[in-house]
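Hey, quick one: can you model this chain's 3D structure?
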Amino acid sequence: MMDKDKPKKPEGIFLTIGSKQKKEFIGPEWKNGKKESAAAIEPKKEEEEFQWLFPEEGEQKADVIEQYATMQKTTAKRATGKLFIIVMSAVIVGVLLGYALVKVVTQKEEGRPQAILKEEKPVKEREVTTPKAAPSAKSEKNSLFSIETAVVQGGVFSTEDGANSMKQKMSDLGLPAEAVLQNGQYLILLAASSTIETAKLIEGIYGTAGADTYTKQLAISPSKKLEESSGEMAALFSSIAEESGKKAAGLEADKNKLKEAESKLDAVKVEPSDETSAELKKLLTGALTEAKSNQPQAAKAAQEKLLAFLAVYSQ
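Sure thing. Here's the predicted structure for all 315 residues.
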């Protein structure tokens, strides 16, 4: 019992330093320290582990080699493609240049025989035509002769009836008019002169009379072969028409030119059997006489005879 009643000595730690003894009490802190020490001694739970997998050195080298080989193949393919394009371009250019060269050489070779043929052709024609009788100067000269003149035209018709109807309409207006056949068409001519300027002056006067006209240069050719005398009179037509046209335009005619034309006309010899040349000379002489006259209606009469001359000449 007495043991139980004894107070418990506090637990502590006795330290002896030198000859002195020192007592140090450690209370609950010490117990807690023991517990903490015990807890520290307890084995720690195993932490979760992560495995880090690194490729081996051999695999890394294989990857590098494979990537390098792929890059080399791609570069090789590109180089091959470029080389193929260059080669094809060179082939195409070579073919085109070769074709052009062959074409030039071929044309040169083909051109030589043609030049020889052109040189030989006139010789053959001369050999064939020389033995034949040459056409007379009369028929060759006059069959190709045409009269170049400026005219005041009132219309073009495909039928003779239509041309005659317009001709009558112009006559009703007091204007000279004649139907001249050329290339299958009937031309209604109202005046003739040598120059466009004179013809335009006449056109202005005819316009005030109500005629719908226009001026142009015209070549009138005969439809059949004519004798030399007809050709000579056709050559005199232009000078007589110009002086007559001036009178129709209200201008003075050149009397010296009319006298010169009259002298040449008198020198023209017409065969009795040549009715066309006889008719042409009669009409041209009448136009010349009217052009020299000072009568009011002389200008119109001269133009009527000149237009009739063209109508006969073109038939």
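One thing worth noting: The two ends are 186 Å apart (CA to CA).
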